[in-house]
Design goal:
single chain, elongated, mainly alpha, about 250 residues, two-stranded antiparallel ribbon
Length: about 250
């Protein structure tokens, strides 16, 4: 029970940071004041502060009041903070662009390697995942579409079978799921994703490393363009509608 209360208190506290009640650079009220505001125990408040400190939203200083860090210090690997940092900074596209840049650095090479290492089993999984994306798109099932999309990329990593590359990409997975749920709520973006995944699959099946690289590069360029064309700043800041998020 304490964990759920801690999470709720952490969310409330983060909300007060985002709405300017406790702005970056300022000090937090005492634990006693926050406990009264949130109607929880001081221990719960302490754990909530510790939770936000682990993502660099809050700086805990022994013997002093805790302070709110500037948004550029907040962890980019916490899905809650992906849109939050954009909201506070006023640059909602900045982190999504940086995420795509990171993906391009890793996944273009993954596609190239997968073309030379994939097995018939991997190819079978890739076909099934694209078909799942098509069906989910037709049914408007965004969560299912996102899972099939991410599974396709995960299969490419499995084909490469390099634990070091897995370790580089794994921390991005939760943030990527959050962003993909937002972008995949748009029908045109889903259509483009299906088209580019098909091109990647064709190149991988043909065991053509160069075409696989270029297909993945094209997919990620299209993803970045789609975010700029189809999503408003407000949508990027608040994320997908509740029905799409599942």
């Amino acid at each position: 029970m304490r964990q759920s209360r801690t999470s709720a208190a952490a969310d409330q506290l983060l909300g007060l940071v985002l709405d300017g009640t406790f702005p970056p650079g300022g000090a937090l009220p005492s634990e006693a004041e926050l406990a009264e505001r949130f109607e929880v125990s001081r221990l719960t408040v302490r754990e909530a502060i510790r939770s936000l400190a682990s993502t660099n939203v809050i700086e805990v200083q022994q013997g002093k009041s805790s302070t709110i860090n500037q948004p550029d210090r907040w962890s980019p690997l916490d899905p809650r903070l992906l849109q939050a940092r954009g909201r506070v900074s006023g640059q909602p596209l900045l982190l999504p662009r940086k995420l795509i840049e990171a993906r391009r650095t890793v996944e273009v090479g993954i596609a190239e390697l997968a073309a030379g290492r994939r097995t018939d089993e991997h190819i079978g999984h890739l076909y099934l995942q694209i078909e799942a994306m098509r069906q989910a798109h037709q049914q408007g099932d965004v969560p299912r579409f996102v899972e099939a999309d991410l599974a396709f990329h995960r299969t490419l990593f499995e084909a490469v079978d390099n634990v070091f590359l897995d370790a580089v990409f794994e921390p991005l997975a939760k943030v990527l799921r959050t962003l993909r749920t937002t972008t995949s709520s748009v029908s045109q973006i889903r259509e483009h994703a299906i088209e580019w995944h098909g091109r990647i699959l064709t190149a991988v099946v043909a065991a053509d490393p160069e075409k696989s690289r270029e297909a993945m590069r094209g997919h990620l360029i299209q993803t970045e363009r789609d975010s700029e064309v189809y999503l408003t700043d407000e949508e990027l800041l608040i994320g997908p509608p509740e029905s799409a998020a599942g």
